[in-house]
Write a structure and sequence with these properties.
Blueprint lengths: L6 H30 L4 H29 L1 H19 L4 H29 L5 H13 L1 H14 L3 H22 L19 H4 L2 H4 L1 H28 L7 H18 L12 H20 L7 H27 L5 H21 L1 H7 L2 H20 L1 H20 L1
């Protein structure tokens, strides 16, 4: 097989699977451990949210540094930092968990940017969406079995097993990563690597100046709040419901993401155009998923699993669709940095899903908090309509044609 399924790319996908496998375990263990130690939902949300908040801050810098120095050099250093973060979990308490989450956030920002920039730069335009979808697919694969493993370890009281698992993941990921990253890094800085638009410190203003980037970022951030609230509080919420398991919920959701991204990878638009109906349908799925999760406490606990299925489909479609679209419409000279900024808004949303929704859950209930998430999803449907997007697309095409004619 060639293209997005050729062996060099498959090695990168497998590396992504190994890199994110620890999170599938930590996302279950940390909330349960925090609850056991008497931490509030707000405190648990801060610890969980620190991971993506740190990643959000570092994304634009990651895009800038990778654009200057190439993905492979950065990747080797990040694998070492990630290993140190995982080992820190094995001998510290909640305070150490917070530090480790922040270290993981730095690692994830650079790791995911390095791999995604490499995929976007190496694949032809028609295969970009497939490459991004397959990368995302492999990052979710650990979520199929990781939560079940984590719950079994927790219920068995085997924190020693938890320690050895994290050490094993850290070592094996590092060894495989250095093997996959061997060879000369022939990436060169982009044409605008040192220009004003490529400076990470100035890239945040693009959210205001670029309507396309703003719309995509609002959609990704709002949806990620829902995703983050599910990841952070599902282990605690499911424990209150009879006959359901957080591990099964997370397994269904992650499995749906994996199957959806593989089965639908050719259906994701890869033409550089905004598809309003497609995006509105995706946001409707997200809204329905959050509503099912909320109603599981009062109508039927089995609605929790329906919500997992719908949430997985929405996740399968949203991120690769928006990332592929931006890879076409953003200016090439600053594309890497701006995509880093877009991904940062996704990180911000996941972080807010823990930090903001934790106090709401303390003040109301988990069910009430997920009902608010459903309301947020309904707002996203309106944003996804994106009338201005069509006009912006046309204007960008005209400006591009004008630049080419003048050159």
């Amino acid at each position: 097989m060639g293209g997005a399924l050729s062996w060099p790319f498959v090695r990168l996908y497998v590396l992504a699977l190994l890199f994110f496998s620890a999170n599938a375990i930590l996302n279950v263990i940390i909330p349960l451990r925090g609850d056991e130690l008497g931490a509030s939902n707000a405190a648990i949300g801060v610890i969980m949210g620190a991971y993506m908040f740190t990643a959000m801050v570092m994304r634009p810098w990651a895009g800038h540094i990778i654009q200057k120095h190439g993905p492979l050099k950065v990747l080797r250093l990040i694998l070492l930092l990630n290993g140190c973060a995982l080992i820190l979990y094995t001998f510290t308490g909640l305070g150490g968990y917070l530090v480790a989450r922040m270290m993981q956030g730095v690692s994830t920002a650079f790791f995911s940017m390095a791999l995604q920039i490499g995929i976007i730069d190496a694949l032809p335009e028609k295969e970009r969406s497939q490459g991004i979808s397959l990368y995302s697919l492999f990052t979710y694969m650990p979520g199929i079995v990781g939560p079940i493993i984590a719950l079994n370890v927790w219920q068995a009281g085997g924190m020693g097993d938890f320690t050895w698992m994290l050490i094993g993941i850290a070592v094996f990921t590092g060894l495989f990563g250095f093997s996959a990253a061997r060879g000369d890094d022939k990436s060169r800085p982009g044409a605008g690597a040192n220009g004003p638009h490529s400076r990470a410190s100035q890239s945040w203003g693009q959210l205001v100046r670029n309507p396309i980037l703003l719309t995509c970022s609002l959609l990704m951030c709002g949806a990620s709040v829902v995703f983050g609230a599910v990841t952070t509080f599902m282990p605690l919420y499911a424990a209150e419901l009879p006959g359901v398991s957080a591990g099964i919920y997370l397994m269904i959701q992650a499995g749906t993401v994996v199957l959806g991204r593989f089965a639908l990878r050719r259906r994701i638009p890869s033409d550089g155009k905004w598809h309003s109906a497609f995006m509105m349908g995706t946001m409707l799925l997200l809204t329905a998923a959050a509503l099912c999760v909320s109603l599981a406490a009062t109508v039927s606990a089995m609605l929790l699993y329906v919500g997992a299925l719908l949430m997985g489909i929405a996740q399968a479609l949203l991120y690769p669709t928006l990332t592929t679209y931006l890879s076409f419409v953003l200016p090439p000279a600053s594309r890497n940095v701006l995509i880093g900024l877009f991904i940062a808004t996704a990180d911000l949303g996941v972080s807010l899903g823990g930090v903001l929704m934790g106090p709401i859950a303390d003040a109301t209930s988990y069910s009430g908090m997920y009902a608010i998430c459903a309301g947020l999803g309904a707002v996203q449907v309106i944003i996804a309509y994106g009338k201005r997007q069509h006009r912006m697309d046309e204007r960008l095409e005209l400006e591009g044609a004008g630049r080419q004619a003048g050159s």
